[in-house]
Each structure stands twice: as C-alpha cells, then as structure tokens.
Amino acid sequence: MGLQLFHSQKKASEVSQKFSKCKTKEDFKSQLRKIRKLRSPKLLFEILEESSAEFKEMNRNNNLNIELTSFYEVLAFVRHKVTHSSSRFKNSTIQNWDNEKTYIFDNYYSSVPIENESLIKMERLQAQRVIKRTAELGFIIFKSLSIQHGYEWDVIKK
Length: 158
What we know:
mainly alpha, 3-stranded antiparallel beta sheet, 8 helices, 3 strands, 8% strand, globular
C-alpha cells in the first residue's frame, strides 16, 4: 500500500507528538511541510488520530456512516489506478478488502470486468458524490484539529 514515510510506529508517534505540541498556525505548517511527502493513507490517519481525539471519534462516527480512513484508502487506490494503470486493476485486489472498503468501492465507483482485471468507470454523478465526500473529509480534518488546538472552526458566517 504505497510508500510509507516511517519504518516504525515509534517514529510515527514522534511525529504525532510534534503535531500535538503545535501552538500556532506557523508551527503546524512547519510540521506539515516536514511530512508533506507522506504517501500512506493509513499512516496519515494514524497520525491524525493520535494528534486529535476529536478526529478519532469523527473518523468512526460521522454523518456519512463510513470509516473515513477506509474512504480515503479507496480514494487513493482509485486515484492511483486511474493515474498509473489506465483505470485497470486486478480483481483479486478488491476481493481481499474488508467489508468497509468493499462497501465504499461498490457505492462510490463502478467497474467493468475485463478477464482477470476490471476497469474503473465513473459517471458524472458518482464523481460529484466522491468530490463532495472528499470535501467533507477535509472539513472533518480541519474541524477536529481546530478543536484539538483551540482554534475557531466555525468560520462560515450564517
């Protein structure tokens, strides 16, 4: 599953602790720049969960009724296959997924079988739905980290 930035859980915990100690926006940006090449969705969400109790709760209990980590992992898989494999993937790949990832793939994407492979297809409405869910995920990350660090998160005027 992609290149991992850290070779140990200890290193990931160290980075998480650095994020949780950020006091200013500049501190947070500085830490983010240091790991911007982070490629493992699972590791990214582990760091977010360690950094924010609010995110850990929102990851599992949200209005989408899906685990956000799984949504992001499926999104990263689809993006990778569309970008690097002409939208093709081996059927065995998703057959090994857990129920959550399979549910997300089946409900947000379409695929057409071609021999031992499948081809990812997306209709316009599916793409709009994925974009909307991705924006909601971004907002949940923003909100949970803002709450954790005492920043104002409700910035949209009503």
